[in-house]
Amino acid sequence: MSDTRYDKLNMLGGEGAIAASPEEAALERVENPAKADYLVRFTCPEFTSICPVTGQPDFAHIVIDYVPDQWIVESKSLKLYLTSFRNHGAFHEACTMMIAQRLIDELSPKWLRIGGYWYPRGGIPIDIFFQTGEAPDGVWLPDQGVAPYRGRG
């Protein structure tokens, strides 16, 4: 039996091809099933992109937290969107902020924060943090759980 609320989803239950770029990647949303404020967390510990100068791969642990309003992101489409960065040349800051802005544009969440914990490039780890403001009162905000980079230390 089909649920007509999900008939417009193209990726869920589908083939799941990876887009050539983040700009071409679809990001699907569904109606928020809850009325109360709550936190949604997505963790991508194996995020990759390409250095726009050297063409070498860059690696990050991305943590996305948001408090939905009317929409939640469909998780398979988010996974494929994040995977579309594999051949995308951009600096750490640009990739992290591009993800945040796309989620804001698509979902209009009540609140969003993103932590981009990038592995060292040139011996220096770069971490990028962004949030849209203060979280709604009463929402539990756990630590993102990613330790600062310590090398082999």
Q: What is the helix tally?
A: 2
**Distance N to C terminus:** 55 Å
Q: Can you summarize the main beta sheet?
A: 4 strands, antiparallel
CATH class of one domain: Alpha Beta
Q: List unreliable stretches of 5+ residues.
A: none
Protein topology:
Layout: E1 29-31, E2 40-50, E3 57-67, E4 71-73, H1 75-83, H2 92-107, E5 111-121, E6 124-131
Antiparallel strand pairs: 1-4, 2-3, 3-5, 5-6
Active site: 51, 58
Binding site for substrate: 73-75, 92-93
Keywords: Cytoplasm, NADP, Oxidoreductase, Queuosine biosynthesis
Could you explain how this protein is built, in words?
The chain is an alpha+beta fold. It has a domain at 29-131: GTP Cyclohydrolase I, domain 2, CATH 3.30.1130.10. The chain has two helices and six strands, in the order ββββααββ. The protein has helices at 75-83, 92-107; strands at residues 29-31, 40-50, 57-67, 71-73, 111-121, 124-131. The strands form two sheets. Strands 2-3-5-6 form a four-stranded antiparallel beta sheet, covered by helices on one side. A hairpin with a 6-residue loop joins strand 2 (40-50) and strand 3 (57-67). The longest helix has 16 residues, at 92-107. It is globular and about 45 Å long. The model has no long low-confidence stretch (mean pLDDT 91).
